[in-house]
Amino acid sequence: MALMITDECINCDVCEPECPNGAISQGDEIYVIDPALCTECVGHYETSQCVEVCPVDCIPFNPDVEETRDELMEKYRRLTGETA
What we know:
Residues 1-29, 31-64 form the 4Fe-4S ferredoxin-type domain. The protein has helices at 49-53, 69-80; strands at 24-26, 31-33. The chain is α+β, with helices and mostly antiparallel strands.
């Protein structure tokens, strides 16, 4: 699954620079995560960095975007140009 940011977001700006894929950006009211770019940090880190730094715990899994770890790794490879 990709991650999402809920409306509990306080716009603290700490998540955006932590995303290695550039999936987080400022939306109209709160930060948003582009599911096409979110790999949950698979391929980069052991844990999702945005979740680690979020002070209000507002970054859950996006139930509308279900992906396996293998699919996330494939997305990582596609985004970074890394070959298996």
